Amino acid sequence: MAARSHVDSGVNERRLRPIYDCLDNGNNKKALQEADKLLKKQKDFLCAKALKALALIRLGRQDEAVGTLQEVHVEDPTDDPTLQAMTICYRELHKPQLIADAYERATKKDPQNEELLSHLFMSHVRNGDYKKQQQTAVALYKLKPKNPYYFWAIMSIVMQANVAEEKLAKQMLLPLAERMTEKFVKENKLEAEAEVQLYLMILEQQEKYEEAIEVLDGPLREKLSPYQDVLHRRKAEFLIKLQRWPEANKAFKKLILGNPDQWSYYVEYFKSVYNLIESNWQPDENSIDTPEGCVDYNFQMAIDFVAALVEEQNGTRDGRKLRGPYLAQIELLNELLKRNDPLANKIGSMVEILASFYEQFGSKPSCFVDLSHVISTMALKEEDIKMLLDKIKASLVAENSTEDITLPKDLKQMNRHLCYSRLCHYFGFQEDWNQHQQLTYAHELIERYHHGLQFGSDLLSTENQPADNYCLLAAHTLINIWKQTGDERLIAQVIVLLEQSLKSTPANFQLKLLLLKMYNIIGAVGASYGMYESIDVKHIQQETLGYLIVEPLLCCAFYSTASVILGNSIRFFTGNYKDTVDYLISCYKFGSFTKIPELVKFREQVNNSFQYAIATVERMILDLLLETKSYQETEKTISSMEIDPEKG
Q1: Cα separation, 7 vs 4, whole angstroms
Q2: Contact 303, 346 (CB under 8 A)
Q3: What is the pTM of this model?
């Protein structure tokens, strides 16, 4: 019988091959003809019927396709080719619930089929039906006791907890998931790192940080990848959540010594120091310092620790100094100043420390980001900021051995001046200038931009020029003058400047976005659309950048172009749901359990996007405007929109 079945399968596959080939090549009309030809010979050939339905869907004849699919569905097929064809049909019809129904019917006819049950589980993943996921995974494990199936069931319980009420999650679902995992731990059945990671996730969601630390310190640690300092970091994070400040302090000190440029470690280290100070913690007289070092339980110890890190960087001779210790020193000084602690004098004045940071890192593009963020968060007084900028300017003047700042001789000098110029702009120190002063300054920036192009002459066209920020500063300065005076010639000047700059840096998105905005301001939406196309907006950028062009196109009656962009946007949003489901299925298959909640959250955020709602409504209106020429067409278009006023 097995041999007979194998022969039949081979014959059927050979007969279906022409239909598959036509569908793969996009020749759906020919595929339909081949399916009809085969069905005349074998009228009950279910796989041929399913492929016929697929061809009908792709030809736009959905009503006929649905009827054909129903004929196949009620027969409860169990063979893989037919079910796979039905799955593709239901996916293209956006009816994933019918995929699950088809596999449920199949598993009832053949309950011992592991492959069918596996497909049923994945169909429930598509629908987000976590309860049925759990039931199917348990059935799979009973049929074939494999670890992945067992942990699919546990992960399904965790996902139920994520969407359930807090009381139900914490009192029933998460404890159940924990007990199921602990059963395997006690029986020494855990095999993969993903299983231990899931165990840690369950403990963390229940705020059982003590137990999580025991896992990290116990034999299960061997199954976790020791990539960089991940394990030490997780343990330190759990210690913070447990408010075990002495141990957390030592843990983060050790992490900082291993990676002195990781800012998040300093944040947690300072958090532990502040809490130790507030709780008046003191070490036990009989305690012995561990190899990891002593606990820093007062500001003096923190000052000494950070100072040692800074001193180590000062002794670096290869020029590759790390910014982390210097930024930590600034953060510590800021905290001391907020508390009016006299120990602040041991570090120095804030202006001097910030000026010193500029001297160390002013030639790096990151310096502006660091200083602007630090100054903004510490709420420095305006006179202190002005004093800092004066010190930076004096440093630049001294560099040139003249009374003024001349054009730079190399890239480092240019970056130092560019950092100063950006800080002045960021803190608004040119806003009080008169029109003539601002115009002179803009022309100086343009001159510096053209001069600075020589420092990026050997760069690829896909890389940004180091001097591009001069161009952006000049453009924004001219825009500010236009806002004050209303002189539209300045807008033209900005557009010319940006267009010229793009010839040197064709890939700079900041220049393109600003130029797009300028074209929108003057109503040149054709040019604006060209700039939007050059940005090559894809995927999630439809959500973050799509709004920049659609409204201007609609306002200027570029309806066809707007319809195309809205169509692309809607395709991304509708495709996102399908694509993320495929990623979720991959996560279950390969055991990436920690990524599943992240993907579900991302999918829901994109699905509930405000931009998605706007794009959908605007496209409906455009369809009525562009696609309907009679009452019948209008009625058909509106009915296809499936508008339900009661749903809002």
Answers
A1: 5
A2: yes
A3: 0.86
